[in-house]
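Proteins fold reproducibly. Take a sample protein:
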Amino acid sequence: MIRRSFLFSFAQSYSSQMVRIVSLVLLARLLSPDDFGVFASGQAIMMLILVVAEFGLTKYLIQETALTPERERTALGLSLLVSLACAACVYLAAAFGVGLVWDRQLAATVSILAVCLLVQPLTLPIMAMTQRQMRFDTLFYIGTFKTLMNVAVSVILAWQGFGYLSLAWGMAAEHLSGAVCALLLLKRYPVRKPSLSRWREVFRFGRLATGMGILHEFGNTSTLVVGQVFLGYAAVGLLNRAQAVNTLFDKVILQAVTPVILPALGAATREGRDLKPLYTTKLAFLSAACWPFFLFVFLFAEPLVGVLLGHQWDEAVPVVRILSGVGLFMPFTHLSIQFVIVLGTLDVWLRRLAWSQLARLALCIGAAQLSLAWLAATLVVDWGIKAWIMQRPIKMKLDFTLADLWRATGPSLAMTAACGAAMLAVLTLVPAGHDWSLVLVGAGVWCLTWLGSALLVHDRIRGEVLHLLGAVRRRLTRSGAATA
């Protein structure tokens, strides 16, 4: 069941990401850094508001061990109340806050994105229940359709000269298409009558999850706002596009894994299983994927920017290289919050996160006085701090040691060294300036080296590859027998 869920989740991630890469290439040539800067600032503000409006209800519906109809009704009631209140505040601020809260461009962007708040109460419970039941085949079709709508609307409007508004309307189209899909699922997951009868117990969980989300999004939002105030929209646009290159790993790999992890951990907890082996396995797989990938991004930053964004974005190359440093810490941060939630140590982590976000804000304000490169460097430092504070609440329950961490991540270091040597050979042999050749040859050599070194030194990956080959062999054998 878990492997099947991962299969569909990866299928959704890869299909959606292929479409988004095409969008990335096209939009980078149709829009300016200022356009991306305005949208990135507006999106960061809206993501913070969406966290408040969502109120942790998706996580609540997925992980709740005794989910009753009354609890479902209460989750829907709170979602309606908070989402509509947030939408009203946004539209009031957009109407009367120009020049006081934000400028006209930012107000227009946030007003369009506020459509997401209006449709969220419909989509949230249905999508959460689909995820809880691990129906990732259904989520695959919905996610792919939503991505196509976003990209199609964004590219068409950008082609027609709508600038930053094209990106906002694209995101709004994605959420509206999600609402249409939710309506089609009403027969399977009927929306219950809203209620607030169990609001206290839902609120207890929601306040912690919302606090976590607010603190996380506050860091992202404050960075972009600080960058816009001290460096301008163009600098924010460059930072946003550099992050888009570096987050390819997140979008291709982690977005496929993340929806499966919390339901799987919730099921493991209900069964009374030990989560320590799952955590060290997570570290082993993520470090094996993250470290070689981000080394590739660091070494091939210039041709990657040339292929994905075009050479008009060459100023983003140093920022891409700096931000690739987050890959060092990603195995310890990504997919760890799901463990914190199921282990019941969210309050410990929240206190640590609050202090780290204040430190991040202070660092960003200081770095923005210097340059965009320094601002990007503070984001890498922030990831290091988050990796450190994330381990304490998990270690409290799982009691892992440094030896456990070394056994989990040691093979990944060997894989990273092998991939680095192979990529340096490519950079030496392939002439500079041939962007497509460098990227394609480098990616091909990276893949072969990664797989070869994984089979040699990484027992867990070798086991999964052998399991996959065995499954394929058995399926082919059954197909041959049926044909005969």
Summary: The first helix runs from residue 2 to 30. The two ends are 30 Å apart (CA to CA). Residues 1-217 form one domain.
